Amino acid sequence: MQQIDINEAQARLLFLIEEVMRGDEIIITKEQKAIVKLIPMTQDKPKPIFGSAKGLIEMSEDFDEPLEDFTEYM
To answer: Does residue 26 sit within a domain?
Structure first.
């Protein structure tokens, strides 16, 4: 992630856009404070892979039994 001053960003805007399109994120600063973050619009969200946790989760035999702490409420 690059940080660049707003005055330099104005002079190099086309270059910065090309950098962002390659996947880089750029933060534009003014007086050493971040004011804008450039990220690509075409960023795809990762799609879930169904079944990827198969075999990683186990249920105990008594998972649906009442809890001992709640016996007085029953």
So the answer is: yes
